[in-house]
Design brief:
- The structure holds 2 protein chains of 2 kinds.
- Chain A has helices at residues 3-14, 20-30, 34-44, 59-76, 83-129, 134-149.
- By secondary structure, chain A is an all-alpha fold.
- In chain A, helix 1 (3-14) runs antiparallel to helix 2.
- The longest helix of chain A is centred in the last third of the chain and has 47 residues, at 83-129.
- Chain A starts with a helix and ends with a helix.
- In chain B, helix 3 (57-76) packs across helix 7 (134-141) and helix 5 crosses helix 8.
- By secondary structure, chain B is mainly alpha-helical.
- Helices cover 70% and strands 0% of the residues of chain B.
- Classes of the chains: A mainly alpha, B mainly alpha.
- At the A-B interface, helix 1, helix 3 and helix 4 of A face helix 1, helix 2, helix 5, helix 6 and helix 8 of B.
Chain lengths: 150, 171
Amino acid sequence: MKREELERLIVDASDGLLNSKQIQKLEVELQNHPDLLEDYLAIMNLPDLTNLYQIDSKLSHHKSSIRSIKQGIRDLSGPGESFEMVTLDWFRRYALAASIAIFAITSVFSMIQSQDTVTDSELIAEEYFYPADENTTDSYVLYLEEMVEE
Amino acid sequence: MGRDDWFEKQIDELYPRLHRSMKAYLAGSGVEAEDILQETFLKAYKNIDQFEGNANMYTWLYSIARNKCIDEFRKRKYESNRSSIPVEDYNIESDEFKSKDQQEDTELLKDAISELPELLRSIVVMKSIDGLTYPEISDVTGVNEQTLKNRMFRARKQLAGILKKMGVNKL
């Protein structure tokens, strides 16, 4: 028999699950494992732990703890939300709405401003590439007048 | 009966037994069973949808409570301090562990259980103090029954060793 199996049988024996024949067979088997036999004897000699801690079944002894748990559950379950929580919730909503409105208004103003800037820029660029030369214009007008006279 | 009423009834029914078990499990750790149970029931209520109707409510709550305890041990690094005290360090000759009467033996027995590492202590508490079956312990720990029995062997062997060092007589 494997060591692990013997260990489990020792536990069964100490739990009172083996009958006298099974215990006798186990003890014969343990003769081949002196260290396990020693453990078996020590384990079988352990005191009963069943009554080491008693259940304090009187609810009055746990009253405050149980009341506290139940209050916690009521707080979690929703309808009895505190004034602070409701106020904070509404404050958050208004703060979010105000933020979105400010962002939208700022965006509209910046778009208008940027459109004006583009127009000015385009004019400046046109003037740069096609500079206004008054002499050229005058010459062109004179040329046209001469053509008409001819 | 509504869900909340049903859950509150479960608290009334299961709290005393769970309190006894947690008290044994947490003995000597400095963690209060009441605090753990408060968090346990609130977490269970929040996650009540995860509880299967045909499952065992007690073992479900137990597994939540045990996980809470393990988290608390980690926070306090409790286990590392505990395991750093070898059993051999107990001075058998000292007055501290001399058993004079049964009451003193009972206290020393509680101390001995609290000296077991968490993995073994939890099984001893669940089986020998709380009276859970191995299938129920398997539900709580997620460990198969054969492994649990091998751990129980180690637990009882260590417990016998600690008690021998303490000089505790059989109660």
